[in-house]
């Protein structure tokens, strides 16, 4: 490139509701490019665009550029609310980053009525101050009709909510009982004590546990995972559909499964009392947490009891006589599980495992109307931890085995954060008396875990945990092993949830092919692993976004009748237009500057503080504040507060 020729690149435009945007380059090694409002040139959220770089990255700021060409439009349809104005109509998009209402001529109304949620096909994109034009192609329902809000999200993100008849027929063809002839090919464990431990509402049970203490003092842990690949064969209709979906999506009261329920809740679900095929991992573990031997094998099991986290916790706490009596003969099994889980967790913590205690939201819905009736913190119990530690162990064992076999594989990769981001975090942590010690060539998870340990139980714990989470990179799937920073492990994969994650199913298939020593398949798996990792990472991002949007929508719905109520909250982040405050029930709202009194506020990015120009009053992340609810919009998925 000569000196006069400016650098150009292709990427996806991501709009910000405040008018500017960013372009995420196709080349993952390049930085996102900032695009000012004046340089967007008609690009819309999700469009693939060509960008000319105006200035290179400097002083911690992203490079800046301008859109010079729209390569491909990102969206051809949108979901929104139809508004009728007699001779014409318009649709207000749910995607607030789509910078235009959509004009609908009378002949394109379809069956839409005022305040209906609709799917609109874009006929003309907005240009030179003119609105987009479109045609209503589907009516979802009235804005207050039960289930319409969730269905609108499904349509907005174009999620495949139904299975074709061919795919369902393929799933049904397996029946509801395992093939008895298959038992002789497997280790028969149907007479052993095996448990599933899940949430009370779970229907797809893909993991089960078997545990014993050996005479030498070691623990023998067997993790049994549903052998989904036995049924979902490569290149089958079921496999093609699962690959497209990539993952199951959990939208509060609704699940969009990766596999039809005939399999996900039936033959592939480890239901108590039913014979089921598994791909299992046996691990012998010393009392210090070291793995001394492991094996991967195919088995047939019959789950003894279907347990839930609440009941297991009551057994461990000895807090419920009726539960203790009911499971009396298995109490020692659960105590042994807790003993081993604690050993494994302590060892991981010592190695630098990042135990980020970020509270999840528990959303309670009215079973009839689907409206949100309560929002609270989801309390994680040690019973949850038991399963998490055992699954981590199985995933590590499988990943390490196949890394050394040099076989095509999909790893769960989580790389070390950038030094720049750590330095930015340290500028804030320094004000609280903490510091992450890291050098460019030596960033170790223990530097983060030490700080997390220091803040445990202190008022600033949640804030520090959240900021560390934002500093870390996003985990993804790759065909190359690059370690997992968050769990402080050299080898990690997702093996334990093949019912709801495609990479796990792919890995199960790889294991079976390895046992058959199929060299042709091995070559084919190299390219398939790369493609599958990329597509699965993309589908995971979409699923996480939809799940987040569903929670935000229901939180806003819950707060709609709380206008005027006053609460205490904690400042969770500060921006150059206001500050976000999180309430104890996990609902987060924005206080704009105009609702913070008669004051001009300056945002200090380094120390995460707002400073009043006249009063010198300071608000920083972690401060307790009293707020009043002044607005809540289910449509915008936002909540607004004012400072008392």
Model description:
Helix 1 packs across helix 13 and helix 9 packs antiparallel against helix 11 (461-471). This protein folds into five domains: 8-72, Beta Barrel (OB fold (Dihydrolipoamide Acetyltransferase, E2P)); 77-145, OB fold (Dihydrolipoamide Acetyltransferase, E2P) (Beta Barrel), CATH 2.40.50.700; 165-351 and 378-408 and 502-523, no CATH class; 416-472, no CATH class; 560-643, Beta Barrel (OB fold (Dihydrolipoamide Acetyltransferase, E2P)). The model has no long low-confidence stretch (mean pLDDT 91). A hairpin with a 5-residue loop joins strand 17 (275-285) and strand 18 (291-302). Strands 1-2-3-5-4 form a five-stranded mixed barrel. A five-stranded mixed beta barrel has the order 6-7-8-10-9. A five-stranded mixed beta sheet has the order 11-18-17-14-13, with helices on one face. By secondary structure, it is an alpha+beta fold.
Secondary structure topology:
Layout: E1 8-15, E2 21-25, E3 33-35, E4 48-55, E5 64-72, E6 77-85, E7 88-93, E8 102-105, E9 116-124, E10 132-142, H1 148-156, H2 165-172, E11 187-188, E12 195-198, E13 207-213, E14 219-226, H3 237-245, E15 249-251, E16 254-256, H4 261-267, E17 275-285, E18 291-302, E19 305-308, H5 309-317, H6 321-326, H7 331-351, E20 360-365, E21 372-378, H8 382-404, E22 411-413, H9 419-432, H10 445-455, H11 461-471, E23 476-478, H12 502-515, H13 519-559, E24 566-575, E25 578-583, E26 588-592, E27 601-604, E28 609-612, E29 618-620, E30 624-633, E31 638-643
Parallel strand pairs: 3-5, 8-10, 11-18, 12-19
Antiparallel strand pairs: 1-2, 1-4, 2-3, 4-5, 6-7, 6-9, 7-8, 9-10, 13-14, 14-17, 15-16, 17-18, 20-21, 22-23, 24-25, 24-30, 25-26, 27-28, 28-29, 30-31
């Amino acid at each position: 490139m000569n000196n006069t020729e400016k650098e150009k690149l292709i990427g996806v435009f991501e709009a910000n509701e405040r008018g500017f945007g960013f372009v995420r380059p196709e080349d993952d090694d390049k930085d996102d490019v900032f695009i000012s409002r004046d340089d967007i040139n008609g690009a819309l959220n999700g469009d693939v665009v060509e960008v000319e770089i105006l200035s290179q990255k400097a002083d911690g700021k992203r490079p800046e550029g301008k859109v010079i060409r729209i390569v491909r439009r990102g969206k051809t349809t949108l979901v929104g609310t139809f508004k009728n104005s007699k001779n014409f109509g318009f649709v207000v998009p749910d995607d607030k980053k789509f910078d235009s209402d959509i004009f609908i001529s009378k002949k394109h109304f379809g069956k839409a009525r005022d305040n209906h949620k609709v799917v609109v096909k874009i006929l003309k994109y907005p240009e030179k101050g003119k609105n987009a034009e479109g045609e209503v192609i589907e009516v979802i329902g009235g804005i207050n009709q039960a289930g319409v809000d969730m269905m609108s999200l499904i349509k907005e993100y174009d999620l495949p909510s139904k299975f074709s008849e061919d795919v369902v027929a393929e799933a049904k063809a397996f029946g509801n009982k395992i093939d008895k002839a298959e038992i002789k090919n497997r280790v028969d464990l149907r007479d052993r004590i095996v448990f599933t431990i899940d949430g009370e509402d779970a229907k797809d049970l893909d993991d089960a546990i078997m545990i014993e203490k050996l005479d030498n003092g070691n623990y023998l842990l067997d993790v049994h995972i549903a052998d989904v690949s036995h049924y979902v064969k490569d290149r089958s209709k079921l496999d093609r559909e699962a690959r497209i979906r990539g993952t199951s999506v959990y939208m509060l009261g609704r699940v969009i499964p990766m596999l039809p329920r005939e399999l996900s809740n039936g033959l592939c679900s480890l239901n108590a009392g039913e014979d089921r095929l598994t791909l299992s991992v046996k691990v012998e573990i010393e009392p210090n947490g070291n793995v001394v031997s492991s094996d991967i094998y195919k088995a047939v099991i019959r789950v003894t009891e279907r347990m839930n986290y609440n009941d297991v916790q009551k057994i461990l706490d000895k807090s419920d006589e009726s539960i203790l009596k009911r499971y009396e003969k298995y109490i020692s099994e659960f105590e042994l599980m807790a003993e081993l889980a604690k050993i494994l967790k302590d060892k991981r913590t010592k190695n630098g495992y990042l135990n980020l205690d970020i509270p999840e939201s528990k959303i309670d819905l009215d079973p009839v109307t689907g409206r949100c009736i309560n929002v609270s913190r989801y309390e994680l119990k040690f019973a949850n931890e038991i399963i998490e530690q055992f699954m981590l162990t199985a995933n590590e064992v499988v990943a390490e085995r196949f890394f050394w076999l040099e076989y095509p594989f999909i790893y769960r990769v989580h790389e070390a954060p950038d030094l720049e981001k750590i330095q930015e975090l340290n500028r804030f942590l320094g004000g609280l008396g903490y510091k992450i010690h890291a050098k460019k060539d030596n960033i170790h998870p223990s530097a983060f875990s030490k700080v997390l340990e220091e803040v445990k139980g202190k008022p600033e714990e949640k804030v520090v945990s959240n900021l560390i989470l934002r500093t870390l990179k996003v985990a993804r799937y790759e065909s190359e092993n690059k370690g997992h920073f968050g769990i402080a492990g050299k080898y990690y994969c997702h093996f334990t949830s093949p019912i709801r994650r495609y990479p796990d199913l792919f890995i199960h298939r790889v294991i079976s092919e390895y046992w058959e020593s199929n060299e042709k398949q091995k070559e084919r798996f190299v390219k398939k692993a790369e493609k599958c990792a990329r597509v699965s990472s993309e589908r995971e991002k979409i699923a996480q976004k939809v799940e987040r949007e569903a929670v935000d929508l229901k939180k806003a719905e819950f707060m709609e009748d709380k206008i005027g109520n006053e609460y205490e909250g904690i400042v969770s982040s500060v921006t150059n237009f206001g500050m976000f405050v999180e309430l104890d029930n996990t609902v987060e709202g924005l206080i704009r500057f105009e609702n913070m009194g008669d004051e001009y506020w300056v945002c200090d990015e380094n120390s995460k503080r707002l400073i009043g120009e006249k009063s010198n009053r300071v608000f920083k992340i972690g401060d307790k504040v009293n707020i009043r609810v002044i607005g809540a919009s289910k449509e915008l998925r936002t909540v607004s507060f004012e400072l008392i």
